[in-house]
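Predict structure. Chain length: 321.
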Amino acid sequence: MSAPDEAGRRMLMPAAAGLSSVSVIVVNYHAGSCLLDCVRSLLSQCGEVVIVDNSASDAADSSVQNVREIYRGDARVLLLPQLTNLGFAGACNIGVGAARGDWLLFLNPDCVLHEHAVSELLKALHAAPDAGMAGALLLNPDGSEQAGGRRAVPTPWRSFVRAFGLVRFEKRYPRLFSTYDLHALPLPMGPEPVEAISGACMLVRKSALEDVGLLDEGYFMHCEDIDWCMRFRAAGWQVLFVPDARVVHAKGACSQARPVFVEWHKHKGMVRFYRRHFRHQYPGVLMLLVMLGVWARFLMVAGASLLRGVLSRFRAGRASG
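Prediction complete.
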């Protein structure tokens, strides 16, 4: 799908106040039918949808085929196929370069927006000029709140507390044993500042992005969103959680194709994140132990994933035999 001229794209933007200035950036990677559901939920809530297709070089992937056929000639939908998988941060930055809006909504392709979700995010940012980004209430398909939509920064200590179950002491020693996920807390009555939101859904003020800079492409996937939130807050911009903006997130839909690949980059991102933000706060020996813990966790998670794959193929073979 070729890029239409700017005048043609502006003509087809929705008339709702403010929504026409919102550009949505979706990074696709083997999202399957989720991508079409995502686009359908978007087009009444934004001015344009920019899809950066990281799986375009994979002939076996047909994620964008239905989108291309249904929205062929629709100036609101722009497809940007990539010759290689750029990772999440790199693809998002490509989308930023193509987007026309003053507000940029970064959205995973396995997300479906409730009605007025973008309006609620936009309203929260308009009401808080010092806020640079806002995140939605992420819901599991069963309607429960998903972990990660609102959170504290996962420092090495908080990650240790969570990994070894020490969070059970949180009520007695809240300052020492608190975890970073906040989804177990009651929902606030309205938008509230948090330390971090999820990259699955974040509306960003373009002027704040220009102040802070693009996503760090040193992260291939995972942790780049928390890194960005920390950079926004360090530059004086608030990060908001908006409970009235609701988004259903089929978490993991895009990572099922290559689980070990995803886990490798997830843990590699953790190492980069810890080194970048905490190496001056933790003694060298302690930071080394943190790094060893990250890679030990990767070996356990990847080994379990490989074992499940072997068992699944074995059972399938026995069933077919």
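Summary: The CA atoms of residues 117 and 245 lie 4 Å apart.
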